[in-house]
Amino acid sequence: MHYDPIKRQLGNLFNSSPLLRRLFYRLLDLLLLRAWHVNKTLKSFQSNGSVSVKNVLDAGSGFGQYCYGISRLFPSAKILGVDVKQEQIDDCNQFFQRIGNGDRVSFEVADLTQYKAPGKYNLILSVDVMEHILEDEMVFKNFSESLQSGGMLLISTPSDQGGSDTDHHDEEGMHGFIEEHVRDGYNMEDIRKKLMTAGFSTVETSYTYGKYGSVAWKLSMKVPILLLGFSKIFYLLLPFYYVIVFPFCAILNYIDVNRTNERGTGLLVRAYK
Hints:
This protein has 9 helices and 7 strands, in the order H-H-H-E-H-E-H-E-E-H-E-H-E-H-H-E. The protein is α/β, with parallel strands linked by helices.
């Protein structure tokens, strides 16, 4: 299933005013389990205080929701979001200028296989990006060169344990719920070795979307996306659907974030220089 057109439709729906855009960001933080894991890790990095975060790169910034959260968490940091899609770059630049934050948060088109800024960043974020890039080792090397000593690279990506919902097969033989992925997911040891080879000194990995989180994802994301792909009438029914299922999803997300998952369809990776 093609996920990008539905993401674009949802983005357009909430883009008519800054208030709705902020509401959209808040909904993403509440509904997306990966956002729970990413935000918890960012808060831990911020509270640790061992590194003064002055420059941040959001590598694959999408709607800009993580740039928005980081701008609030690190109020003195300059943040650059990069993406390959010009329409999303223009959209994000316009939004952050409208809310008076364009001097600290900016966006530009960039290819991560080529982009590097030697020793510039204290924090690099890459959420749901690496599964779309075939030349991952080149990107990891660029991240390493762009990160200052003591800085952190934070990656959220599917694992090789069904992270692209590889148990799904359609009538044309397509593998995975999301067809834009170039790999089904990362093996924990494989991504650790690639990052160490790229120049990182310490790599920590943990599973996300474990037993409880996978159920939450199906309820909060997979079912609604399938329904929206079937008919736009479900845009009207979604609020009622979430009123029923969100309390259960929130509990399941909380459990997933606060336990050690022995297995999981997602990976959270923290790599340090």
